[in-house]
Write a structure and sequence with these properties.
Number of strands: 0
Order of helices and strands: HHH
Helix content: 55-70%
Shape: globular
Strand content: under 5%
Oligomer: single chain
Distance between the termini: 29 Å
């Protein structure tokens, strides 16, 4: 199992989205693939920035 970022958990909690661990892991993989972050060293930071400002967060 991977360790899901605290940022992603905070985002899901703020949105009141309740997922089990398997679902969170799957969502994490899908998000990193969607944003082209697979293997990036700063993927958690980029996802957090995208949440704060979805327009410029992933540039």
């Amino acid at each position: 199992m991977i360790r899901i970022s605290r940022a992603m958990n905070a985002i899901l909690n703020e949105m009141q989205i309740w997922l089990n661990e398997t679902e969170r892991e799957q969502l994490y993989h899908e998000l990193t693939a969607y944003f082209g972050l697979i293997g990036a060293t700063n993927e958690c930071q980029v996802l957090e920035n995208a949440w704060k400002d979805p327009i410029i967060g992933v540039k």
